[in-house]
């Protein structure tokens, strides 16, 4: 199986000034080709470090894909480092890239200066990958590394330019390498902690074929994703998934790119049912998740963000005595919130949240991270049933809110 390294160049990444999104996109594309990414690294703007790190990657992997450091300014030193690394003795002008530079500058009304023109100069050992979206060309260098067979691809650091050149890079890789397949399949679970989940499916995991690898990917909003990866051969995951579904039952809510909100959306649309929300501690985040699904207007009517108690009473019909006796963070309160928004917005289902996200506001009886959740359903006779759940999330305010919202969605899913 062919291997790869993905590298970024630029001090701006190392000091946290920008976020590297190029590497994740590149790694996904390489993976789809059946290439295993073994290393990711970020290199500062140092000629010696660039040559040293890229040389190491070329010795250890078949393909090196690097982004950044190809601009027109003096701190963009990647091209000269690549010239030395590849053994080039001189530069040549790429007429194709020069024509692109003239076109781009002309469209922007910018006069051509020497630093722009210099971007069309490339080491004479490289194959140019014309960049139609920017002034810096992509470059491919062949026959590198200790094996004399490794290939290095250099792309601009600007994300839309790098991604625009990726199809050409992937086509070139296909031409130069005989590739195997890497196939992934993801199963999405919610409601079982990672350690408990691993123990429950331990025997199933031990029985997996030797060419299938299992990874646990926990996430506050998505739950624990189980990613199966098969290296080589024709993948057929179904015989492996059937016993897993029996072990986990309704803890599995989807597969592949599913989310709790997309699964809920499919169920509501298929049943011709509608949804409303009453949020307190989640402050609109639950609504944000629901509306992140395209077409949610088919089933989602709206929400009431009832942060203040007077809104809970005036809009949702929560009783004053409920708040006085039990408080806003209580099973009784979320029951009335869920039933109230269901009636107010005339929907078939509703969800309500009330909790203490923190960092302050907790008590010994209701510490920070406590939340009560409710999911209501209108029955055929017009009556309303409500399911409730209390959860605890001892984390930061942001993570607590994410967990409150995700658990509320899961409560709805289980009661649809």
Question: How would you characterize the overall build of this protein?
Answer:
- The model has no long low-confidence stretch (mean pLDDT 95).
- It is built from 16 helices and 17 strands.
- Helix 3 packs across helix 4 (78-86).
- Helix 12 (285-291) links the parallel strand 13 (275-279) and strand 14 (300-305).
- The chain has helices at residues 11-14, 22-32, 47-60, 78-86, 95-108, 114-117, 159-176, 194-200, 202-206, 238-248, 260-271, 285-291, 309-314, 320-326, 331-344, 397-415, and strands at 3-9, 36-43, 63-67, 91-93, 121-123, 127-129, 138-144, 150-155, 182-189, 212-219, 223-231, 252-255, 275-279, 300-305, 349-355, 370-378, 384-392.
- The chain has 416 residues and is of the alpha/beta class.
- 39% of the residues lie in helices and 26% in strands.
- The strands form four sheets. It has a six-stranded mixed β-sheet with strand order 2-1-3-8-7-6, sandwiched between helices. The protein has a five-stranded mixed β-sheet with strand order 14-13-15-16-17, with helices on both faces. A four-stranded antiparallel β-sheet has the order 10-11-9-12, with no helix packed on it.
Class from secondary-structure proportions: alpha/beta
Please tell me how large the radius of gyration is: 28 Å
For the termini, the CA-CA separation is 45 Å
Q: Low-confidence parts lasting 5 or more residues at pLDDT below 50? A: none
Number of helices: 16
Helix content: 25-40%
Morphology: elongated
Query: How would you sum up the major sheet?
Result: 6 strands, mixed
Largest sheet, spatial ordering of strands: 2-1-3-8-7-6
The count of strands amounts to 17
The residue-averaged pLDDT reads 95
User: Strand content of the residues, in percent?
Assistant: 25-35%
């Amino acid at each position: 199986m062919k291997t790869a390294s993905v590298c970024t160049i630029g001090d701006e990444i190392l000091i946290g000034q920008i976020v590297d999104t190029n590497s994740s996109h590149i790694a996904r594309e390489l993976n789809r080709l059946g290439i295993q990414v073994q290393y990711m690294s970020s290199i500062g703007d140092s000629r010696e470090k660039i040559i040293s790190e890229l040389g190491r990657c070329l010795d250890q992997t078949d393909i090196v894909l690097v982004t950044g450091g190809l601009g027109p300014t003096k701190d963009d030193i990647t091209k000269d480092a690549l010239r030395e690394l590849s053994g080039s003795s001189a530069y040549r002008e790429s007429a194709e890239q020069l024509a692109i530079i003239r076109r781009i500058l002309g469209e922007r009304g910018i006069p051509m200066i020497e630093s722009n023109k210099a971007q069309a100069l490339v080491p004479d050992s490289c194959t140019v990958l014309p960049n139609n979206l920017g002034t810096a060309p992509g470059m491919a260098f062949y026959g590198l590394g200790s094996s004399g067979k490794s290939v290095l691809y250099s792309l601009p650091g600007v994300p839309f330019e790098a991604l625009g050149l990726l199809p050409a890079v992937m086509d070139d890789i296909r031409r130069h390498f005989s590739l195997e397949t890497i196939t992934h399949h993801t199963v999405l679970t919610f409601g079982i902690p990672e350690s408990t989940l691993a123990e429950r499916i331990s025997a199933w995991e031990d029985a997996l074929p030797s060419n299938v690898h299992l990874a646990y990917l926990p996430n506050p909003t998505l739950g624990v994703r189980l990613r199966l990866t098969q290296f080589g051969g024709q993948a057929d995951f179904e015989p492996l998934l059937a016993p897993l579904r029996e072990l986990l039952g309704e803890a599995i809510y989807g597969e592949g790119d599913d989310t709790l909100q997309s699964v809920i959306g499919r169920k509501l649309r298929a049943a011709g049912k509608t949804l409303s929300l009453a949020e307190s501690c989640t402050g609109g985040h639950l609504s944000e998740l629901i509306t992140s699904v395209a077409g949610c207007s088919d089933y989602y009517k709206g929400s009431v963000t009832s942060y203040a108690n007077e809104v809970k009473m005036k809009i949702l019909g929560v009783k004053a005595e409920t708040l006085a006796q039990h408080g806003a963070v209580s099973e009784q309160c979320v029951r009335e919130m869920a039933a109230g928004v269901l009636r107010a917005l005339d929907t078939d289902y509703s969800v309500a949240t009330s909790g203490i996200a923190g960092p302050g506001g907790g008590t010994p009886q209701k510490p920070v991270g406590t939340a009560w959740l409710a999911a209501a359903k209108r029955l055929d006779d017009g009556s309303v049933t409500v399911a409730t759940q209390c959860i605890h999330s001892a984390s930061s305010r942001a993570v607590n809110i994410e967990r409150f919202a995700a658990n509320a969605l899961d409560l709805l899913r289980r009661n649809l």
